[in-house]
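Pasting as-is:
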Amino acid sequence: MSVVPADVLPGGALAVEEPAACAAELGPRARLWPSLAAVYRAQLSRARVARIPLLFVATFQSVGIMILMRGVVDDGAEAQAVVAGSSVLVVAFVALNLLAQYFGQLRASGGLDHYATLPVPPAAVVLGAAGAYASFTVPGTVVTAVFGCVLFGLPLAHLWILMAVIPLAGAALAGLGAALGLLAPRPELATLLGQLGMSAALLLGVLPADRMPEVVRFTRDLLPSTYGVEAFARTFGPDPDWAFVLGDLAVCGVVGVVSLAVATWAYRRAAVR
């Protein structure tokens, strides 16, 4: 009986170890944009029924503020500030207030663990949720702007600027709201911070800046929604200065990138705890 070395046998130990040593390669990591689109669609379908009543409340609130201010402010620059501020307030109510509450509750209930197990980048979770919440602001913002223009006798010619104001101001406020919700240690504190942020957008955005003290004006300049309000208000004039409009929108865009980056970092920090 002859002895044959094991390494020459096709089914020998060494022949078996060779493919075992080469572990199967993992599938490619999920890319950002497909993951973002998937999270966006999921959030949009999830929040469609629950958020529509709140969007109605946000729109009704802004319309009511304009009706109250109609007998207080004069026509001209003050009316432009009221209409622009009330329109962006709808964005602040949803993108800042509701998103802070959502991420605060998600963190407290352990919902972040579900997203952490999914093969999606953290940025896709934050951007998808922020984009879904910001999308709900479009109808209410447009309705508020049209109603305000009719109420105060302002021109409707440049309302197309809302196509830039809503996403840029929405990104800045949504990133801020997500960061507040993820960094708050308790959901009640996240709700409080979201409410305070929306109140700041109401008081500093709707009221005419000319009637504010200098210290309050400085605080107003620190609020991201201010630049969306200024960009929209400048378009009501007979000859808008588009350089200033683009400058305000650029500030909104930069703040949006920074706030969403902070929110993504806060998501990573909260997900590993």
